[in-house]
Structures are given as C-alpha cells and as structure tokens.
Threonine dehydrogenase-like Zn-dependent dehydrogenase (Microbacterium immunditiarum), 392 residues
Amino acid sequence: MRAVTWQGRRDIAVLDVPDPRILEPTDAIVRITSTAICGSDLHLYELFGPFMDPGDILGHESMGIVEEVGSAVKRLRPGQRVVVPFNIACGECFMCVRGLQSQCESTQNDEYGTGATLFGYTKLYGHVPGGQAELLRVPIADYNTIPVGDELPDERYLFLSDILPTAWQAVQYAGLSEPGTVVVLGLGPVGQLASRIAHRRGHRVIGIDPVPERREMASRHGIEAWEPDDDADRIVATTYGRGADAVIDAVGLEAHGSPFAHAAHRVASVMPDALARPIMEHGGVDRLAALYAAVDMVRRGGTISISGVYAGDADLLPLKTMFDKQLTLRMGQCNVKRWIDDLMPLVEDPSDPLAIGDLVTHHGGLDDAPALYEKFQTKRDGCVKVVLHPDR
Ligand code: NAD
Ligand code: ZN
Ligand code: ZN
C-alpha cells in the first residue's frame, strides 16, 4: 500500500510499504477514505525527531471502511463505515471506565511513562503505524472504532477522531458554570472548534492568532478575533479590570519565536532577577509563550485549560504568580471516546451547528502529503485544515 512516512525533520515521503495484517484476534483492518493532518503532526515534522524512526507511518485522524476483522471482533463487520479515535484504549481498565481513555492502563507505554498508545505518534506512544495510508490496523477494534452511518460526507464525521472531542474537552476543562469571557489562544483547527463550542454555550469568546485567514475564519462564527498584541491589557480593560474567566491554550510548545513572547517577558519581568534569568536564558519564555500569556490574561481564581501539547520535563513556570492568582490548571490529551455521545448529535444535526463544514481548506491525495505538510506548517495559502484521501 501507499503510506505517508516520516524521514527526517521537514522530510515526508510517500512510499510503497507492506500492507498491515491482522496480528491479534481483536484487530480490524480499515481501508482509509479520509485522514487529516493535525497540529500534533507538525510537532513530529519539526521537533520530535529523536523519537521517530525514518519510515514511520504518520497520521492519527482517520476514518474509512472496515475491510477485515479478527476472529474475536464482535461488533464490526467488513463494510462498516467507522471513525478511528487517535488514542488506543481497552475500554475496560480502571482509567477507561472513568473516562480517562488517554491514560488506558492496558495500552500505556511503561518505558517512557506516557499515557495510552497512539496511532502514528513516535516511540513515546507505542510506535504504532498511523492512518495516513491506504490501510490501517486498528487494535482492540470493537472499542477503538466509532461506527457511523452512510448519509453524511466524511468531513462531518472525521474530526470525531481527535480535534472535535479535543476542543470539547478544552471547553469542559475550562470549567465555566455561568456565561463568561473565554480567551482561546491559537486559532488553528483545535482553537477554531473550541471557540465555536464556547460561543455556542453563551460565552464571550476572544480568539487570538497571528494568521489573518485564521482570524477571518473565527470572525465568521461570532468570535472576536485579535492579533497578538497587548492582549492582556485589552482583556483586563474589557472585563471590569479582572481578566478572562478562562483561557484555553490551543497552541502548545512552539518551534520558533512566538508572537506571544512579549507577554511571557512581561510575566517574567516582574519576577526577581534570580528567578527570571534562567527562564529567559533557557528559551523557556519562547517555548512556553502561550502558557505564560495565559497566566497573564486569566483573572484571579480563573482556569487555564491546556489542549496544546507541551513536552518539557522540567519547564520553568511562573508558579508564584499562578499560586498568588489562585489558578486552576487542567490539561492533557483528549479522552476521545468519553465525549462522542455528547458530540454525535451535533455532528449529525442537519444545520451543522458547529459549522464543521467551514474548517477544511485543503484536500489532496496521499501523494500531495509532502506539499500539504509544508503548507499547513507555514500556514500559506489560507491553510487551516488539510484532509488527505488515500482512495483518490
Ligand atoms: P496549529 O499548529 O494549526 O494551530 C496552532 C495555532 O496557534 C496557529 O494558528 C498559530 O498561528 C497559533 N499560534 C502560535 N503561537 C501562538 C501564540 N503564541 N499565540 C497565539 N497563537 C499562536 O495546530 P492545531 O491542530 O490547532 O493544534 C493546536 C495544538 O493542540 C497543538 O499543540 C496540538 O499538538 C494540540 N493538540 C492536542 C490534542 C490533545 O489531545 N490535547 C489534540 C489535538 C491537538
Ligand atoms: Zn490530532
Ligand atoms: Zn483501558
């Protein structure tokens, strides 16, 4: 089959590789019809080289048609249309039954102390081939597939695999019990959907991103879209001097200088030199810029909900300020299966209340992957979300 493979930093190749086979009786093989590129793939593209092997198959946002099932698969039959959640969970362990599928104890990787195994996401997460390919082996397939009907196009269902439940979880974790002001940092695909969900729940939503096309998309859906500037001052000025009730960080770690560095410097600048200097000198301010900005913008007693991926083992945080402001922090990988029952009615609603139809800007075949990774990374050409179709 053809598959999108990681070869090195910013080096993607589409190659012929052996077809996946059923390895366990609980496996299924899915023929992929749509598979998206995620901001998390950009971390692999740019940063996580040490945890990749050349030839690793990328992709964790996939759907398609079941082609073959193992002898112990009970719910699925060949021909069933399914979405595949990005985390691989058992559905039965202590964590899974509590809705913490990203921490599944049956699939977690003891070697690195990370959570559940993920499709297409490095040795840190089980080293399982991903779904940017013609075929995908799905372990524990009865649990790790979401059956869907045949009526609606792929695009409506595809994002149940990751970014839609991720955005939903981000808003849940923001923990707002009454209408308030929510700031969403980063208007990539996750930030777009989180903004729409928060707006639909009656909050005032301010989305911040340096990319004009991403701000325009957010504006179309009732979001106040701001360029990163003196955001904290502006937010304080419009919230009775308090700051945002919640800040959703849909950015995560960054490879380059950040448009939020000024906010991070501002937080660091009120620290005594002895504390601030190591943060400045170790690049922490740039790498953690969105998080520092969130600390700056959130009101006292507010919540920071982090869906962006961070990966430092011992990052320097402005804990004095965080403690003093009495902040709540929630974060982590999405527990995809936990939110599907909440999301399916919205996805299938004919009026498309989350405007999922207005997210994908670029489609292609597998062979277009190298060019489309580059476009999504540089955000050229109005690129917000890319979907590959291995069957085209
Ligand atoms: P993306 O890279 O398209 O979006 C990030 C956006 O942030 C971009 O639009 C960029 O312009 C903007 N940005 C960068 N620095 C900024 C800053 N300092 N302030 C404001 N905006 C800034 O990616 P995405 O697909 O939307 O994913 C966003 C994050 O969520 C990534 O870190 C991704 O790994 C993570 N993610 C996490 C989960 C999870 O389970 N928690 C799931 C999916 C994605
Ligand atoms: Zn993803
Ligand atoms: Zn489990």
In short: The chain has 14 helices and 18 strands.
